[in-house]
Every structure is written in structure tokens, then in C-alpha cells.
Design goal:
The complex is a heterodimer of chains A (459) and B (513). With 459 residues, chain A is α/β, with parallel strands linked by helices. Chain A is built from 13 helices and 15 strands. Chain B has 513 residues and is of the alpha/beta class. Classes of the chains: A alpha/beta (459), B alpha/beta (513). At the A-B interface, helix 1, helix 2, helix 3, helix 4 and helix 5 of A face helix 3, helix 4, helix 5, helix 6 and helix 7 of B.
């Protein structure tokens, strides 16, 4: 079965190396090292994979694949719904992309990994500053899985098995939460939104002694603002926790953060903080909570300490919560997380600072408001849910939003998300997002194009 | 130093006591300590729409009274901060990283270029399918390549990491048995050598975890497995080669036994790097598995993530894959959400797509030559083992696969030096330490995985360092016990860190009155 060895740029062993190494080991061929594999399951043929191209050919091929996609550089993007096209300062990936960070492993040898550990500690600190919470972990997979783990954490904290889940939470987050909680026997009850928001009265009506947590999103999936404080009071009055999910934490540059409004756990998506759209991943699961709850928290935590000579240093800490020590009794199975994306988020938050982040959030609000008012002025268009919004809003349209999008695509614009697939009662609902990246000229182009498409359809 | 297997002696000088000074060598202040009001490091787009008072848009009560208490630093401050932090890190691009079970191979640069193409990096996940055909084609082709490599039929890319893949797979097993009316299957068996994620994932899936011991050759104990294999068993989670770096010699018997009681055989694919083109899990009898793209398929670990843990399954489990799956549609591709038996979703969107791009580029760069990856990985591991086997105990003396596990019990017994001490001393020699104290079944475990991308010279340099430390255990045990001596910080107080957690910086206004 010995096949001729073909030199490859990633494989440094030479013919002479291999001969000497085999002699040292005391075997005649590499094949002998596989002798313990039953012959009946050896693969006797070559893998059926396309032959290797040169790097130049490979890159050309990948460029061609990438070129088939309508990315946010080539198209004017009004899509949001959990993934946001924010400005990413050049420093973010020049720093997060340094090979010393990119090609490192989890910082198991703390003395050698102070850079990674300090960067994570600073990320935890920055996220607390932004959300108003007391403790944040080193990261989860994404906003959806972080929200699901928050629900499980609430069960562990309250020893109750009910979750009240607002239907104004991102539909994919809700789906993930149900997938995670079903085998654990949690009962998830939908909390229907009323006019695009979750009402404290609906929460009070649905709460009972078995409710572990009320889960809402703020700003919610429709771009509306939830009454977080009143929702927290309602939850707490029944001994339940309030989990606030967030899809775009940039909002907290301007809005009161959940930590100031009584939230017990904040779970969400950190992609908007300096991470690329990446067709959905890798993103950044954020999880923050109260200090008192830290020992029920999933995921890695970095803490500050001192070394044997009294100097400040950082270590992975409270590891007895984690799977490598606690195994089936761990708070979660999470091991690999999204460390590099957390690092990028930290650079982003530090780059913008308090005023820069507020400026971004404010530009989002103003531009979205301008777009919203102009679009609502078009005949047949209106707000599905009147009221204040952050940088997203739902329009009701006189024609199916899918048709609007087709017309917009021909004009180089990515329109909003049609809500019909997620909310059958909103089949003419169209969720648009306007970040600080969209210019007034682009918004005007959108409005004119929508007017044209609707008019053509009406004729 | 004595000679071992023709390894040249000499060439090892004691590590310097004083490293050359460079900025940040004495510690890097926290960003918040460098903050001064009025500085900034970014110029984001401002509003260019007609100004409207903010209160006309949002009720004042919802606004933050003051901006978030983030640091205020200049752009150069920020660049120096993170550059200095990066100098206080260890990485594959810097040196040998023999962490067992982690497959710290070289991360090719062309993969990074590919992932950063705007057509991928700037692509919104809800871009209408006809306008995202390049991305979907890449996913479909990667699925086909992984199916061929693993001997499986279908693949989901949704899991973001290996443990996430384990959870996804067990949810599918659970759905499969629920569908068949076999709800009495409430138990999952896991060998005592397994990664901690295995029992944790089983528990998250609501399963009772049964631990199966290993036998004297380092294989799963088939007789012990037989005792727990009954109609209550849902799955056996097996790592192959296992965490001792040994191929499960009785794999066919194990598969027969598990299938004989109607259970599913799951592969923790963390160690796939030993098997590429050599043997396929699907042919060994596994029904489903996860693979770590950040191990076997060269995508960088990023200091702990992101990774990707795609799950590959045999056809009988395909209906339970999470939604959506990528399907061919004429000349193009579509996302299929209409799958009534699907377990649902385990995350939003489709997975860590930018990681998939890198793995795709990696597999393409080898094609059928992937087999040489595993051949070289196994050769490197056996060579390193040959260089080290006299100096340390070897609890399971068999040809290893891509990694091997030594024990530091001799050093502990003879010199009172622990494996942790040995690991810390290796840092002084300029190497990252191997994985230690895992697997749990080996006392004072030292788990070494060299990977295929390391040269003979690097392996020998590492071996010389290991032998030098073994010698120091005898001659200067205190030097080892107090290591490291040359790293940016000395040994850190983990006990205080856990007893009095300090998990974020405190602003002056947070200080207790």
C-alpha cells in the first residue's frame, strides 16, 4: 500500500528525514505504524477529492466563488435581523488579526499567555461597562446559543422549569432555545407580542411559581424598545429572572443598558462590535450577569491575580464550573468559544470609546428614523408597529416584500427581510435596518426605488 | 546530558535569566489605566440626514444619562496596547505547540486571504439565496469532501465547535429514537479516557452518563461495555484514535456490540488527523461524528475560538439534521428548511462560515494527498515518542497514532517534581507545554501531539528540552518546582484568583465607600 511520497509545502519531512526517523523508531515503513487498524477498514484507494491546484489557481477559484455573492460592498445593504453592517475601524482586524493572537490556543499555560488573558479580562470589563452588568464571560458561540444557555442557567439558579419567551425575540434565537431546552424538560411558553412589544401585563398574566425566566430582546426583533424595567419588576415579583437578549449591543451606546434596568442575565450577539458579516459566522456570543450568579455561569472566565513576585497577572479561573473538571455535572459543555471575535469586540469598543459608540448609535437612530419616515410616506406603506425604534423597523407593504426585494436587487440594493416565513400573520411585513453605514443618498435611492417598484406593480 | 537514540547532545544552554527588555516587558497597563478624557481612536460615520432633536425620535427615559464608561485612548495607544499584548503570547507562528488533543498544526496564510475576500467576509446571512450562490456552493462542496473523507453521507455545518457538534449529534440520536418509539433509551456510554465535553454534552441532552473503563492495552474495555449495552443504551461516544493516541483495536467488535443492542455509535472526531485517507469512521461502523475544522483542517484556534464542529451522519440520521441544509437545485443551490424531522437549530444562521472557507481551501490544497498529512503526523508522533520513552514512563507501550501520553510519575516519585512543574519548566526552554493531567486515567499525564507540519529538527529540539528537564528533575528539582523563570510573569496565584474573583476592572466610582 506504500505510495510514492509527494513533496508538499505544508509538510517539512524529507525523504532522508523519514528514513532516519523510521530507523530510530525501529520500523521498516510508515505503513507498519498503522498495523493495528483492522485490514477490513483500511482505505485501499485514494480519497476521491479534486487534485490540488496551485495557490494562485486556488485563490482565483475562491475569488470566483466570492464574486458570485452580493456582498455589502457591492450592494447597498438594508438587511439586519441579527447581523449588522456597522463600520469596522481598520485598527480592529489589524490588531485582532495579529498571528500571535490568531494562531494561539486557549491560554492553558498562563505564564506564556498573558496577552490573551489580559485581552480577555479587558473584554469582560468592556462588556460589563457596555451592558451595565457585573460579570461577563470570555464568550459563547453566538447570540442564539448564548440566549439558550441563559435559559438553562436560569433554571439552575431558580430550580424552576418554565421559560416565558417573548415572540418579539429573534425567531432563530427562539428556535435554538427550544432545541437546547427540550431534552432538559423545560417548558417553553410563547409570550405573544402586542403591537410589536412585550407588555408587562402579559408577563404578569403568564407568570407562575414554576417560571424560571422571562426572556425578551431589547431592542427587540422588530426594532422596538421593550419596557425592560417594568418587565424585570414583573418577573422578580414572581421570583423569576429576567433574561435580556440583544442582537445589536451598539444600541447600548445610547440606550439605558439592561444592567441599569434590572436584568439578571444579558445574552446576545457581539458581531456588531467589530466583527464581519461572514455569511452568519463566526460571531460572538455574549453572556453577562450578576456577581452573585457567577458560579452557575457557563463558559470560561479570566480573573486578575498576582504572580509569585507580586506582579499583576491573569489566569483562567472558577474552572470547577467547566466540563474538563466537572464533566457531566458542568454548567455547560462549552469548551472552544469565540475568543478571537471577543478580542475584536474589545478593540472595537476601545477604539470607539464612550463618545464614538454613542455617535454610532445616534447616527443609526437618526438615519433609520429618516428612512422610516420617508418610506411610510409612500402610498400603501406604513409602520406595522408604530412607536419608537432603534435602527430597525417593520413596514407593511402594498405588495409582497419578496417582490420589492427583487426589484431592488436589480438596482443594486439588498432590501429588508420579509417576515412571512417567520410570522405568518406578517406576510406583508418587511424588516428594514439602517445603520450608520448607509448614507442619506443611499436611503434616498432606496425610497425612490421602492416608490417606482410599487408604482409599476400597481399599474 | 546523556545520549538518547543518537540524538546529539549539547546545543542546549540553560535559558537566560534575563530576557532582553522591550516595551511592555514589565507589564502592560489596562486600557482603562491609559484612558484620558477627550481621546479617541476611531472616526465613525456621522449622521448626514436632516437633523431632528433626538427627543423627537426616542423618549428621553430610554436614553443612557451618560455614555458607557469605556476607556478613551488614541489610535496609537490602542495599537501599542494590543501589539504589546501580542508580544506576551505564544502561538503556532512563534514556535512548537505540542498540546495533545489540540492538533496545533500550521494555519496556512492563503486560507486567511480566502476568508477575507469581501464576497465572503461582507456577505449578510440573509442575502437572498440566488445572490449567495458562491457561498452555498462552497458549503455544498465542502460537505461532499468531508463526506468522502469520513465515509459518511450528509454533513451539517451549524455547530460552532467540537462540543457543540457533540450536542447536535446527541440531539439527533435522541430525535431518531423518539421517532422510532424507543424512548427507553436514556443512557449514553462514555469511556473513562474521554474528553470532558462528552459526558457534559450527554448531560445537556438529558442523558444519564455511564462511564466505561479502559483495558490494559488502552482500548475501551469491551467486556465492561457489554455489561452496560442493553435496550436502555442510546449511544456510545467513542474517540478514535482515543485520547491515549491509540487506535481502538477492537473497533469492529465494539460497533457490532453497540449495533447489536440497537444503539448508535458516535465518534468524537477530535483525533481525525490520524486517519485521513488511511481509514474512514463511516467504514469502521460509526453512525455519526463531529470533526473539528480547527484541529484536523488547519483553521486557526484564535486563542480559544472560533472553531467549527460539523457533524457528519449516515443516511438513516440525515432527516434529523438541523435546519437549514444546503441542497442542490438544478445548476444552483438552495437552503432547505422544510424538514419536519429536524432537531431544530443549534445556533442562528448556517455555522461559522469563514471557518468553512479556510477548511475548504485547506482540503483543496492537498486533494488526495491528505493521506500524507496523517502519515506524517503519525510518523512525527512515533519519532518523538522514541526520543522520549526512556526518560519518562510510558503507561501504554504500543505504536501510537498522532499523539502519545507519557507519565511523570517517575519524576514525582523520585524527585517530588510534578507534571505541572515539568510543564512550567518547558516554558523556560521556549516551548509551549504538552497537555497535562489528561486523560484522567494516566497519573501525572503528559500528552504530546506534534502534528505533521513540524520538522525533524523541531521535534529533536523539543526532545532535547524534555530530556534536559528530566535531568533537572534529578539534579535541580527546586529549579523545576519554581519554574517558570523567564516568562513575563512567574507562577500565578490561581487559588486567590478563584477565592476572590476579580473578573473585571473597577472604576474609581465603583469603589466601596
Amino acid at each position: 500500500m506504500a505510495r510514492a511520497w509527494v513533496p508538499h509545502r505544508y509538510l517539512p519531512l524529507t525523504e532522508a528525514d523519514r528514513a532516519q526517523m523510521l530507523a530510530t523508531i525501529g520500523v521498516a515503513s510508515v505503513e507498519d505504524l498503522f498495523a493495528d487498524i483492522p485490514a477490513s477498514v483500511r482505505l485501499l484507494r485514494d480519497l476521491r477529492l479534486p487534485p490540488a491546484p496551485s495557490d494562485a489557481e486556488l485563490l482565483a477559484e475562491l475569488r470566483a466563488l466570492a464574486g458570485q455573492n452580493a456582498d455589502a460592498d457591492r450592494y447597498v445593504c438594508f438587511l439586519g435581523a441579527g447581523a449588522y453592517d456597522h463600520f469596522i475601524p481598520s485598527v480592529v482586524w489589524h490588531l485582532a488579526g495579529r498571528a500571535e493572537f490568531v494562531t494561539a490556543y486557549t491560554p492553558y499555560q498562563a505564564e506564556l499567555m498573558q496577552g490573551e488573558l489580559q485581552a480577555t479580562y479587558e473584554y469582560q470589563s468592556l462588556l460589563c461597562a457596555l451592558t451595565g452588568m457585573e460579570v461577563a464571560n470570555a464568550s459563547m458561540y453566538d447570540g442564539a446559543s448564548a440566549t439558550a444557555e441563559a435559559a438553562v442557567m436560569a433554571r439552575d439558579l431558580t430550580r424552576r422549569g418554565g421559560i416565558l419567551l417573548s415572540t418579539a425575540v429573534h425567531p432563530e434565537y427562539r428556535q435554538v432555545l427550544r432545541t437546547y431546552t427540550a431534552p432538559l424538560g423545560l417548558t417553553v411558553t410563547d409570550l405573544p407580542h402586542e403591537g410589536g412589544v412585550t407588555t408587562p401585563q402579559a408577563v404578569r398574566d403568564a407568570l407562575d411559581g414554576e417560571t424560571a425566566a422571562v426572556v425578551v430582546q431589547h431592542p427587540n426583533f422588530f426594532g422596538r424598545l421593550e419596557e425592560v424595567q417594568a418587565l424585570a419588576e414583573a418577573a422578580h415579583a414572581a421570583g423569576a429572572l429576567l433574561v435580556v437578549a440583544v442582537a445589536d449591543p451598539v444600541a447600548y451606546g445610547l440606550l439605558q443598558p439592561p444592567g441599569a434596568l434590572g436584568a439578571d442575565i444579558v445574552a446576545g450577539e457581539g458581531q456588531p462590535l467589530g466583527n464581519h458579516l461572514n455569511f452568519g459566522g463566526p460571531y460572538l456570543g455574549m453572556l453577562a450577569t450578576r456577581e452573585a450568579f457567577v458560579r452557575r455561569m457557563p463558559g470560561r472566565l479570566v480573573g486578575a491575580t498576582v504572580d509569585a513576585r507580586g506582579r499583576r497577572g491573569f489566569v483562567l479561573t472558577l474552572q470547577t464550573r467547566e466540563q474538563h473538571i466537572r464533566r457531566e455535572r458542568a454548567t455547560s459543555n462549552i469548551c472552544t468559544n469565540e475568543a478571537l471575535n471577543a478580542l475584536a469586540a474589545a478593540v472595537y469598543m476601545a477604539a470607539l470609546g464612550p463618545h464614538g459608540l454613542r455617535q454610532v448609535a445616534e447616527a443609526c437612530v437618526r438615519k433609520a428614523h429618516y428612512a422610516r419616515e420617508r418610506l411610510c410616506a409612500l402610498p400603501g406603506f406604513g409602520l406595522a408597529f408604530p412607536g419608537p425604534t432603534f435602527h430597525e423597523f417593520v413596514l407593511t407593504c402594498p405588495l409582497p416584500p419578496e417582490r420589492l426585494n427583487e426589484g431592488l436587487q436589480a438596482r443594486g440594493i439588498l432590501g429588508g427581510l420579509p417576515l412571512g416565513p417567520f410570522y405568518p400573520d406578517l406576510d406583508h411585513g418587511w424588516l428594514l435596518c439602517v445603520t450608520e453605514m448607509r448614507t442619506r443618498a443611499e436611503i434616498d435611492r432606496l425610497v425612490e426605488a421602492v416608490a417606482e417598484i410599487a408604482e409599476e406593480a400597481g399599474r | 546530558m546523556t545520549e538518547h537514540h543518537g540524538l546529539a547532545s549539547g546545543g542546549v544552554s540553560a535559558p537566560p535569566q534575563e530576557a532582553p527588555r522591550r516595551p511592555g516587558a514589565d507589564g502592560v497597563p489596562l486600557l482603562i489605566e491609559q484612558s484620558a478624557p477627550g481621546r479617541r481612536a476611531a472616526a465613525p460615520p456621522a449622521s448626514d440626514v436632516p437633523p431632528v432633536p433626538l427627543e423627537a425620535i426616542l423618549p428621553p427615559a430610554v436614553l443612557r444619562p451618560t455614555p458607557p464608561p469605556l476607556p478613551e485612548v488614541s489610535e496609537l495607544d490602542l495599537v501599542r496596547h494590543y501589539t504589546r499584548l501580542s508580544h506576551r503570547n505564544y502561538a503556532v507562528d512563534l514556535g512548537f505547540y505540542p498540546l495533545g488533543s489540540c492538533t496545533m498544526k500550521y494555519n496556512p496564510k492563503v486560507n486567511e486571504d480566502a476568508a477575507r475576500l469581501p464576497g465572503f467576509a461582507r456577505l449578510h446571512p440573509y442575502t437572498p439565496v440566488p445572490l449567495a450562490q458562491g457561498a452555498l456552493r462552497l458549503m455544498a462542496e465542502l460537505e461532499a469532501m468531508l463526506a468522502e473523507i469520513t465515509g459518511m453521507d450528509r454533513v451539517t455545518f451549524q455547530p460552532a465547535a467540537g462540543a457543540h457538534g457533540e450536542l447536535t449529534a446527541l440531539l439527533m440520536v435522541r430525535a431518531y429514537f423518539a421517532d422510532r418509539g424507543e424512548r427507553q433509551r436514556t443512557r449514553v456510554a462514555v469511556p473513562d479516557s474521554a474528553h470532558g465535553t462528552n459526558p457534559a454534552s450527554a448531560a445537556m441532552c438529558g442523558y444519564e452518563v455511564l462511564t466505561v473503563p479502559s483495558d490494559r492495552r488502552g482500548n475501551i474495555d469491551v467486556e465492561a461495555l457489554r455489561r452496560v449495552a442493553d435496550e436502555r443504551l442510546a449511544a456510545l461516544m467513542l474517540t478514535n484514535p482515543n485520547t491515549l493516541g491509540l487506535f481502538e483495536e477492537r473497533i469492529l467488535e465494539v460497533a457490532e456490540l453497540v449495533h447489536g443492542v440497537g444503539a448508535q455509535l458516535y465518534l468524537d472526531g477530535a483525533n481525525l488527523n490520524a486517519m485521513l485517507g488511511i481509514t474512514r469512521p463511516g467504514d469502521q461502523g460509526f453512525d455519526l461524528m463531529h470533526t473539528n475544522l480547527h484541529k484536523t483542517f488547519s483553521t486557526p484556534h484564535g486563542g480559544g475560538g472560533p472553531g467549527a464542529g460539523p457533524v457528519a451522519v449516515k443516511a438513516h440520521l440525515a432527516p434529523y439534521l438541523p435546519v437549514p441544509v444546503v441542497e442542490r437545485d438544478g445548476d444552483g443551490f438552495r437552503l432547505d428548511y422544510d424538514r419536519p424531522k429536524a432537531i431544530g437549530r443549534v445556533r442562528a444562521f448556517y455555522g461559522n462560515f469563514a471557518v468553512l472557507v479556510r477548511a475548504y481551501a485547506y482540503i483543496r490544497a492537498y486533494g488526495p494527498l491528505l493521506r500524507q498529512v496523517s502519515e506524517a503526523a503519525v510518523l512525527n508522533a512515533n519519532y518523538l515518542l522514541a526520543l522520549l520513552r526512556d526518560a519518562f514512563d510510558l503507561p501504554y507501550d504500543r505504536p501510537c497514532k498522532h499523539e502519545f501520553v507519557l507519565s511523570g510519575r517517575r519524576q514525582k516519585r523520585e524527585s517530588g517534581v510534578t507534571t505541572r512543574d515539568i510543564a512550567k519548566r518547558l516554558l523556560d526552554y521556549g516551548f509551549h507545554a504538552p497537555t497535562i493531567y489528561f486523560p484522567l486515567i494516566v497519573e501525572e499525564a503528559i500528552m504530546v501531539e506534534p502534528t505533521e507540519t513540524e520538522s525533524r529538527e523541531t521535534l529533536e529540539a523539543f526532545a532535547r528540552a524534555m530530556l534536559a528537564v528530566a535531568e533537572e528533575c534529578r539534579t535541580h528539582p527546586d529549579l523545576v518546582r519554581t519554574a517558570p523563570h523567564t516568562t513575563p510573569v512567574a507562577r500565578l496565584d490561581e487559588v486567590t484568583a478563584a477565592r476572590r474573583p476579580n473578573l473585571r476592572w473597577r472604576l474609581p466610582e465603583d469603589a466601596p465607600a
